[in-house]
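Page 37, continued from 36.
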């Protein structure tokens, strides 16, 4: 294989791996979600530059992707949204235990 062809293939593979890693960071959270026990409780997660917006009934809250979770920083505490790959759901803390959301169809 010619040296220029080898360099092209190496750069091409590196670029593909780099783009795949950047594109997937937090993308599992994107979309519309609905509470598994209360269909009136729903929200949408959209990308906002390097961060995310959680939009619910006209309200928007910013979130960041940290340690495999979306973190919503509030005045008193931080709330984490965790994606479960096995079930395809998001869980977040609630008053009476964890609240689970599934993707809207």
């Amino acid at each position: 294989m010619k040296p220029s062809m080898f360099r092209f293939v190496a750069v091409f593979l590196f670029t593909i791996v780099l783009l795949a890693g950047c594109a997937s960071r937090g993308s599992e959270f994107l979309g519309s979600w609905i509470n598994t026990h209360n269909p009136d409780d729903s929200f949408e997660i959209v990308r906002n530059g390097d961060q995310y917006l959680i939009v619910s009934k006209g309200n928007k809250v910013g979130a960041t992707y940290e340690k495999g979770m979306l973190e919503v920083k509030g005045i008193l505490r931080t709330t984490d949204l965790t994606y479960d790959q096995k079930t395809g759901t998001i869980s977040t803390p609630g008053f009476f235990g964890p609240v689970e959301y599934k993707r809207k169809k």
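The chain has a mean pLDDT of 84. Flag for discussion at group meeting. The helical segments are 3-24.
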